[in-house]
Write a structure and sequence with these properties.
globular
Length: 52
């Protein structure tokens, strides 16, 4: 599963709680692959992913 699939908008969730929890997990584990994937998706057309 990619990190994009775990974002709140991809899971159909409202609010930031899921994204905050995901960010904490990524930072604690120093998951560089997830960080790279998030950065790459900042400029994609999907505005929901951009805002997450």
């Amino acid at each position: 599963m990619t990190v994009i699939n775990l974002l709140a908008s991809s899971r159909g969730l409202k609010g930031n709680e899921a994204n905050i929890s995901l960010a904490q997990e990524i930072s604690i584990s120093n998951n560089k692959v997830a960080i790279k994937e998030l950065i790459e998706n900042l400029y994609k057309k999907n505005k929901n992913i951009q805002s997450d």
